[in-house]
TrEMBL record:
Classification lineage: Bacteria, Pseudomonadati, Planctomycetota, Planctomycetia, Pirellulales
Highest taxon in the source lineage: Bacteria
Protein name: N-acetyltransferase domain-containing protein
């Protein structure tokens, strides 16, 4: 039986996270989505609230990033946004 483990991502795993997005979204969208994730992780204005990875058999298999966004500059309330998640392959 394969067990999927969910955990908070760690910065040293960023290359693996970006690779999951490239694989999940293919040759056309993969580089764009992984670039967006990479930029968002470095953007202090987005301040990622929660970055989670899924591991299957001790290998990274998925990622989701929740970050805060302003809907209209300078106005409340803030909202939260989940970037498109990357999932590599199918879970059994």
């Amino acid at each position: 039986m394969n067990v999927v483990q969910i955990r908070v991502s760690r910065d040293p795993g960023r290359d693996s996270i970006l690779a999951v997005h490239r694989s999940a979204f293919g040759d056309d969208e993969g580089p764009v989505i992984s670039g967006l994730v990479d930029e968002t992780l470095d953007d202090p204005t987005g301040e990622p609230i929660l970055s989670l990875v899924a591991e299957l058999d001790n290998e990274l298999a998925g990622h989701v990033l929740f970050t805060s966004v302003e809907i209209e500059p300078g106005k409340q309330p803030s909202a939260f946004m989940a970037l498109q998640h990357g999932i590599e392959g199918e879970c059994p």
